[in-house]
Structure formats: structure tokens, C-alpha cells
Amino acid sequence: MNNKKVMIFSAPSGAGKSTIVAHLMKRFPVLGFSVSATSRAPRGEESNGKEYYFFNTEEFKKKIANNEFIEYEEVYKGFYYGTLKSEIDRLWSQGKIILFDIDVVGGVNLKKLFGESALSVFIKPPSLEVLRERLTGRGTEDNESVERRLTKAQYELSFEDKFDVILINDKLEDCLGEAERITEEFIS
Ligand code: 5GP
Fold first, then answer.
1. Number of helices and strands (H, E) in the chain?
2. Which CATH number characterizes residue 109's domain?
């Protein structure tokens, strides 16, 4: 299992995780993105097997019962997300280093499972104030939703010391550079 490495990226919503993950995926072909399973419906252009494997709640629960997940969680009320064991096998059989984009609690759980084979990275906004501005600036959230995400972010920030590396996303350019440096060091 020694050369079977994984990178775990977790962050409170609005910290810029997707941008950083997308950048690393382009920059390092050895990385393989772990496609999670979810019971939520596809959004916009999302397609099955690309962003997620989409299942209805009943199908998802059947997979839980069959022990098909390495980890899963009800990230939002009534909506399940999880990593299928078959996805790990698929990526490792291709010789990839797996990259997980996963919520904070899932990230902590995966780090426990993979231990030294994993580098877990916590992406952090510079402050809650900046996070509030970013969430408001998206224009997609009403006030109540912004407050809900901020409360959740506060909770999620309490897990930061359980991660191997903390990346502060203040200036995106700098953060991308630092993310590249960390990745290069870990995969070499
Ligand atoms: P969204 O619905 O916006 O795509 O994702 C919601 C949250 O679920 C994000 O924080 C994302 O990182 C998290 N997530 C995605 N896949 C998984 C997974 O396999 N397991 C867990 N625990 N969380 C996941």
C-alpha cells in the first residue's frame, strides 16, 4: 500500500476549495479525482460519473447496507454523500494518487483511515468576515442561508488542527502557488 497515496482537501463552504482543487487537477496529471456518490439531484450541467455518481435515497441506503462505502455522511439534512470503495480501487488500479474533495468531517475520517499514506489539507478563509463577504458576493444565497453557512463554517473551523496542512486562501494566486508546492512535495 506504500505507493498508494491520497490527498484530502476539505474546507468550509466559500473558502475557495473547488478553484484550488480544479487547478491542481489540471496541473498534476498523476492525480485522480475521487468521484463521490450522492443522493442529491444533479445541478446544472452535472453529469453522472463526472462530478458525482447520482443515486436516489433508496439506492444510496442499499449501498450503505452492503458496506460499499469507505465513508459516508448526511452532509445536509436528507442528502447523503459518500466515497465508494470501488472508486478507490478504480483510481489506484490506474496508478493515480487520489484527490478527495470532501467535507471537513469526512476529511478527518479519511485521514484516520489512510494515516501516513494521506496528506490532509484544510483550506481556510482569512477570517469569518471575509467568508461572509464571499458568501454574500456570490449573490446566490439569501441572508438566512449565508448565516447558516457561517454557523456551519465556525463549527468546521474547529477541526483545522486535525489536518496535516492549513492553507489560508487570502490572495488566490499565492494560495494556488502554495497548494502546488505542497502537492509537488507530497507526490514526489
Ligand atoms: P455539493 O452538494 O455542494 O456538491 O457538496 C456539498 C458538500 O459535500 C461539500 O462540502 C463536499 O465537499 C461534500 N462531499 C462531497 N463528496 C463527499 C463525500 O464523498 N463524502 C463526504 N463526507 N462529503 C462529501
1. 7, 9
2. 3.40.50.300
